[in-house]
Design brief:
The protein is an all-alpha fold. It has one domain (16-147). 70% of the residues lie in helices and 3% in strands. The protein contains four helices and two strands. The chain has helices spanning 6-52, 67-80, 88-118, 136-147; strands at residues 61-62, 65-66. It has a two-stranded antiparallel sheet. Strand 1 and strand 2 (65-66) form a beta hairpin. 18% of the residues are buried.
Length: 148
Amino acid sequence: MAEMSLRDATKAAKSWRSRFAGMASKHEHMLGTAMRTAEIGIGSLSLGVIQGSRKPGEEVTIFGMPLELATGLTLHGAALFGLGGKYNEHLSNFGDAGVSSYLYLVGRGLGEDWRKKREGGGGAGSDLSDTSGQTFSDRLSAVAAEAA
């Protein structure tokens, strides 16, 4: 049976320590990624439930902005100025949920307009509902002009 010297034992311990440190770092990164994904998903789901529980045309707005955009900008601003302390990263993740939800709605409305134009219809996307026959793009431009 081979005996291990103190030098060999120290070398082996350092080797194992570095292996475990590498694994811990990898798992910490994976956990951070999973947490970010969960926070963005939960935030988007929550905003969708809030807006979806309203009748078309009665969606929640804050200072004339859709709830999703206002939430995203507010949370990103709070994180930027450090208002969340050690939780700034989480504020930013939930801010991403708001901005992403808003951009999804804009993209969906534009896609509906394009489909309706391709099909020969006038095109009025389901978001920012009205009956004037304006396209979603026209309504979005009008909302942006009112906010400015």
